[in-house]
Amino acid sequence: MTFLSKTLSRVKPSPTIAVTTLAGELKAAGKDVIGLGAGEPDFNTPENIKAAGIAAIEAGKTKYTAPDGIPELKAAICAKFERENGLRYTPQQVSVGTGGKQILYNALMATLNPGDEVVIPAPYWVSYPDMVLLAGGTPVIAAATLENSFKLTPEQLEAAITPKTKWLIFNSPSNPTGAGYSRKELKALTDVLMRHPHVWVMTDDMYEHLAYDGFEFCTPAQVEPALYERTLTCNGVSKAYAMTGWRIGYAAGPVELIAAMRKIQSQSTSNPCSISQWAAVEALNGPQDFLSKNNVVFKRRRDLVVSMLSEIDGITCPVPEGAFYVYPSIAGLIGKTTPDGTVIEDDETFSRALLEDTGVAVVFGAAFGLSPNFRVSYATSDEALKTACERIQDFCAKLT
């Protein structure tokens, strides 16, 4: 349709949302569907956080706020960064948005010009390249393969950087792989960035608190303080605090960049939900003990899924350090045929056939920029995960 912007032709709808939507439609039509596509914890928002939101409503805190966050939330964010990451920011260096996605989008819109390049390690969260394209930039994909535990090497980062590079988008623990970079691994990457002072770092630390087996989270500006002035450290309350629907994300960085992001937000959505902001204040300032309790459950689910998928001939399923995803390879299944004659040509064919045959919805690896793989979200019940993995085992056993 010629009436629509040509910019839209550069991007595609979110595949993860598409899978979740399709699974919901099939379920509504009566099919027995187990959705493993959504990156959303099945835990309820903690009671103290819900109570803070209710209290905000009852206190009449339902009016417009400053475009990028109330002072109380910015203060809580500054305290969180210093307490947990050793990073000191002032409220003028903080931006609060309607979810982490808006924070990333605002930053890209505020900084990218045509021709600017953004290095994105693959597998990547599906929205990164399309947000870069919407902002007029050019995604440069650097593949972090299974052989390297889905982690970008310093050599790969060096090779991806050109004089046109403006940003590196860095996500650890990762969506979709759950891979987490150790301090030593991250230091090797920041050493490369120190040799290229024109490159800024946009971190996506959304899964910071979802880490297992003693993995210790760290973020780039924490590992290399000299990067502080060219790092936007992004985070949010969606995943660890089970607040996906509250839609609060935040970031801290140089004042000039934050001011530019504020300008964009003031002319687009304006402030995030006032009630959600007050709930987020309680999330960051209140008790944190539930985080470790939830992680015990997530680790158990991770181990269940990895164990059952690893039993399948043709599938390789590495053990992730964090988040709530696994990213198995189906390289050993490519070329095989289903009982109805469908040839497994790629991971999209596999995922579609799996859904149609078993009702298990996963997201195909091509959506994340690295094939042949698929992503499983284990942020659902043990019972559902066990049944889903049994169905995947049976499906693969029938391939010839």
From TrEMBL:
It holds the Pfam family Aminotran_1_2. The keyword Transferase applies. It is an enzyme of class 2 (transferase). One of its GO terms (molecular function) is L-aspartate:2-oxoglutarate aminotransferase activity. GO terms for biological process: amino acid metabolic process. PROSITE patterns: AA_TRANSFER_CLASS_1. Residues 31-392 form the Aminotransferase class I/classII large domain. Its EC number is 2.6.1.-. Its cofactor is pyridoxal 5'-phosphate. The keyword Transferase applies. It catalyses: L-aspartate + 2-oxoglutarate = oxaloacetate + L-glutamate. Keywords: Aminotransferase, Pyridoxal phosphate, Transferase. Homodimer. Belongs to the class-I pyridoxal-phosphate-dependent aminotransferase family. This is Aminotransferase.
